[in-house]
Amino acid sequence: MTKIKKKFGDRSYARRVPMTGMQQISIDLKPRRSISDVYINQKMDVTELSKYIENKKKEGTRITYFEAFVTAIGKIMYNRKKLNYFVSNRHMYEHDNVVVSFVAKESFTDKAEEMMILIQIDPNDNVFSIGKKIAEKVSSVRDPKTRKKEGANVAIDVIGKLPNIIRIPIVGIVKYMDKKGFLPSFLIKDNLYYSSMIVSNLGAIKCGAIFHNINDFGVCSSLATMGEVKNDQFVDEKGNVKIRKVCEFGVNIDERIADGYYFAKSLQMVQHIFNNPSLLEDDANEKIEIGEIR
Questions:
Q1: Residue 286, domain member (yes or no)
Q2: In this predicted model, what pLDDT tens digit does every residue of 135-171 receive, in sequence order?
Q3: How many angstroms separate the CA atoms of 274 and 74, rounded?
Q4: How many CB atoms lie within 10 A of CB 126?
């Protein structure tokens, strides 16, 4: 990958982008991410995606809905660059890389610990390579022989066990360093709040999509949850009732990084990918053309 040349004001993991006057005032009026998030609930038709997954299964290739979802996010972020923006310390930045994060349990039990997992989606990645990355990361967490905590996962264990009189000042210092953009690399590594988007596959536990607040800490502007894939009834233009496969998504996103039209067209592009799932096999940065919303 080509090394990105940094300018004054950039961060080690992101570069500053210019803003309009409207954007700057919006940030001044709402300086915190947690009071700037908007909620989007969207039912997506995944009928064609379901057929695609079944056909691939018959060919001997296993693809999960979650892998398809993460791949679609990567493709959208390469095509809709503002979705990879974040606001910090009243400035706007673009992440150097597209990184999707999630939390995985060491096992499906109440007492099992959780670990943060980050998946970097490179320009030439597709659903197959991304699926492999996800499988390898999750397997390493689930297997006690390969399980290894690093970066933020270790820091949380250490700092979280300190007494209040020590822990609270340390957390305050960490938050200040985060705001100013000089958090140490060992606290950024494996930190899901330092990703492009946090995702959660609630469908895996037979649960519907939910809305989850985004955090002031870190540089992540969006969080999306994926519900269970179900059959649903639709009435077509001729009045005929049809059964389609649908999946509900709950998305929280920082409204300061783009306008409503930009978000709406981005969702339309996700649906376009699900309607044409072979696009998942293309490079993540492959350009996707869809019409304007009228």
A1: no
A2: 999 998 888 777 888 889 999 999 999 999 999 999 9
A3: 13
A4: 18
